[in-house]
Amino acid sequence: MQAFLKTGKLSGGQGSSSTTKEKSCSSGVSKKKPSLTPWVEKYRPQTVNDVVEQNDVVQVMRQCLNGADLPNLLFYGPPGTGKTSTILAAARQLFGDIYKDRILELNASDERGIQVIREKVKSFAQFSASSIRPDGRPCPPFKIVILDEADSMTPAAQAALRRTMERESRTTRFCLVCNYVSRIIPPITSRCSKFRFKPLGSELIRERLQLICSEEKVSCGEDAMKCLVETSGGDLRRAITCLQSCSRLKGPGIEIHADDVQEVAGVVPVQWVNGMLEVCHHNNYEMLTEFVDRLMQEGYCVAQLVEQLHEVIVFDNNMTDQQKSLICDKLGVCSFRMQDGGNEYIGLLDLGCTIIRTMKT
Amino acid sequence: MSLWVDKYRPNSLTKLDYHKAQALHLKNMVQQGDFPHLLVYGPSGAGKKTRIFCLLRELYGPGVERLRLEHMNIQTPSNKKIDITTVSSNYHLEVNPSDAGFHDRVVIQELIKTVAQTHQLDPSGQREFKVVVICEADCLTKDAQHALRRTMEKYVATCRIILVANTISRVIPAIRSRCLGVRVGAPNKEEIINILQSVCRKEGLSLPNELAERIAVQSNGNLRRAILFLETCKVQQYPFQPDQKVASHDWEIYLKDTAKMIVLEQSPQKLLQIRSRLYELMIHGIPSEIIFKGLLQELVKNCDMQLKTQIVEKAAFFEHRIHLGSKPIIHLEAFVASFMAIYKKFMEATVADLF
User: Fold this and answer.
1) How far does the CA of residue B237 sit from the closest CA of chain A (Å)?
2) Which of A41, A105, A109 to mutate to test the interface with B (most CBs of B within 10 A)?
3) What is the pLDDT of residue A99?
4) What residue numbers bound the domain in which A351 lies?
5) The pTM is what?
6) Does residue B162 form part of some domain?
7) What are the chain A neighbours of B313 within 8 Å (beta carbons)?
8) Among A111, A91, A93, A113, which residue's Cα sits nearest to residue A103?
């Protein structure tokens, strides 16, 4: 109760201070240009308002900034949609300079077994936080524990969190970030307010990329831009990394073309994907092996090819639904085997043989 | 006196013989003084390492060629000691974490983190970052790859990582999205022939075109093997004859013979003999994946289409199992046994049809 009242009282000061902070942040970013930072970091949203597309989350965060209480959060959604960015931006706005002391960020590269949850998280959570900053300005009286990539935590470690989350709710908020909500145990999900992050629309990605292009003085043709948006699949981080890699490779001032983007993104060119289906139409094993051999020598990523084949097959007009389902079944098996480390050559041959067999029937 | 493979290895990006556009791109990137993490992938013998060394030389100058070998001792959390060998110069470190088996995560965490954390002592040196080359990145366990992903982001100011892999299907997407992928495809036949000819010119030898072509075909896109074949031919017989025999590896012949035995007779006794032959191959360090591929290629040769699809399906199934289990011989043998069963049934059916 005490906590609620306190946060409530702080609201006015907090809100106004954060808006001023906002401005200083966003203007400060464009000025300093450390050449070594990746663009993904450089153009990470600095305030909650900069986060695109995810309206309901932004709404909630904005209310928190204006003094409403922050619930425990669970963000889930595909990679590159701004989950980590949102919580980091919100934390920065909430706490300002003392943000380092108030945040505990753990991700998959840190040791995160049950032991760490018991010791590190618990002891961090137990400290109470003051509602005034060292410089006398008010700030919310809690700390935030960010568990990034929470779906790679063991169920035992998640179970250890349950009681901690409740008991320390006076001083600590938890924010879990993950790709698959199904891998979080139900007791945790029921303690958090869940937010789904949608994949970004292609228009938004294009807008963002164009902004970066003009900031960094990169010339990027229309077809290259289209290719970037297509290959990203709604993942803004991937699109930006790809753009940066392209511009680095080509050197400053040289226009980026669609094939550069394809090469950097590791996409298998369309003629190879169609070639695979075409070879299978011939019902000839020797031609298939020859094709697979050539593909292996070119060094293309077979897992990627399988994914692209799936796209093509689903939208193919010449196949019956039964054929499609048989092939897609095999595609799934192949993809699974390759993830486990299965040999690409044999996997691809197997796939080819299945396609040949289904085409005949 | 070194092998021709090493002697004629190009040592600058401008001297590379093929994929010149890519070399130019890499050179561009280095000249801007900064580059992202790299993931270099392609089939073996396509020149991945060569390209990396050219890149490093371009970056740091000839200092990278002064290499030293170091043995390091790392202790796992379970108190097991791991020895790992690294090759390093003042500017870079080359390590193969998969030598440590499933303890590779510890190697990544300890070794690479310590390298990445230390700054370059001499700030007037050319670059403020070091390079860590990780070989066989596709053999890293999932744990190790996850451990790498944060290290890559955190220490990006002091350290660049170059991952070398044969295939990126096994590299997790999180790593792939953090690296700039550089695909090094195998050289085609004409390119190999040109390189063989130029090696011979530099050695002062004359190489008939037919022989060069046959070597190129037999090397199967693997340039290193092609040059090694060439040198073997030179030792066997010089001056070269156009119809000279190109010696292939012993184990390849052995594997082919094994496959022939399987096709000739299908019985439990034969299976026992095959088992000892497979063991023989594995004792000599031939990876099970290559045995599998070789067997499959030979076995399907005299089957009809329907049989082929069946066999390939079985092969994919058992080959996948090798990676899940720990004893490859069991799965290899299972494949041979199931091939025998399919083949025998097919033969009996055709014989029955005849009468």
Assistant:
1) 30
2) A109
3) 79
4) 270-360
5) 0.79
6) yes
7) 350, 353-354
8) A91
